[in-house]
Amino acid sequence: MTTPPFDTREQDIIIVGGGMVGGVLAHALQCEGWRVTILEGAEAGASLSFDHRLTALSDASWRYFDALNLLDETTVRAAQAIEEVRVVNATNFGMTRITRANNEGVALGHVIANRAIGAAILRAEQAHHASVHNQGAVQRVQPARYINHQPQANGRVQVMFDFHGKTQQLSARLIIAADGAASSVRAASKKSIDTKAYGQTALVCTAKPAQPHHGVAFECFTKSGPLAVLPAPAGRVSLVWVNRDADIPALMALDEAAYATQLDAVFRHRLGGFSELTPRAAYPLSLITLDDLTAERLVILGNAAHALHPVAGQGFNLCLRDVRDLVAALRSDRGEAVDPGDAQRLRHYVEGRLDDYRRTIGLTDQLVRGFSLDIPGAGAVRGALLSLTDGLAPIKNRLVRLTRGV
What we know:
- By secondary structure, the chain is of the alpha+beta class.
- The protein is 33% helix and 29% strand.
């Protein structure tokens, strides 16, 4: 077998992980003029990040995609605008409606397939490479399995990886871990994490509702966990149903029709039922946080630094804010050269992210624990709170500001 060639010259930045976070990050960095190499474990076009799932991009994330030239005509057609969000109680009264009016008159977000995001990144990379005026570049080395890295005395970092069964190495000035919640870079760096298991698993699929969704997203709180019903392109919806771990085997064993009936009952027939379900995938849920985000010539970001519960759809949007802020932290000063691995710059980046982490992680964790209480009277209390919140525009406006990421 002939080993595919790649540029072995020194790079500015090496990113371990070429999924949605690593892909957007690499493109954003090349737009700033950096030479970037992505080490991705999956075969070309087969990253586990670009799977059958759909992602809800907040208003701010959608605008950031636009700033990175990721919103070409194909991407826009592949997305569904969220016109309204309804937070409801599955078994009791109560509902809070959040509309465009609570978000300065614009869509609350957009729902798009992960695969469409991956395709948009590749098109943007190719367009950037085709322009003779651009300095930065991205090369993808895959399948490449990270082994370890070692800072050097000359202000560089040596990265070892397996490529087609052979150990290879590349040198750069900064390595970025964007390889997910089970990060191998984080583990090799001996970074300790805090893990809090929720005892819940998310079952994910898409379906065709019997009634038009009209761009309305639902967050339906049940006794076992939240059910998110997100409007998707082509009249479909994305279904993320969180249940107790003990109930997952029985739910996975149901055939398509029986599972659709269960979903419709929990959702109280709001869209008239579901059909044409895609195969279900199960994702156990934990809160993973990391306090120490940097080391010598290393940054850890995205799900490698924080893995959240899917309630309120904050996970990928928080990751994009990591990307945005890191790219800004590495930006040149008045045209002067910048060392991307400079410890002071990396500390500045981390300090700027802490408030967002505390706010977003705290919000999602409190929602999970507060709305998952299964004690007598809890449902009535939740319903009363939802009804009260619906009548208080300032509270809804603040909630939108907390979740939109600006």
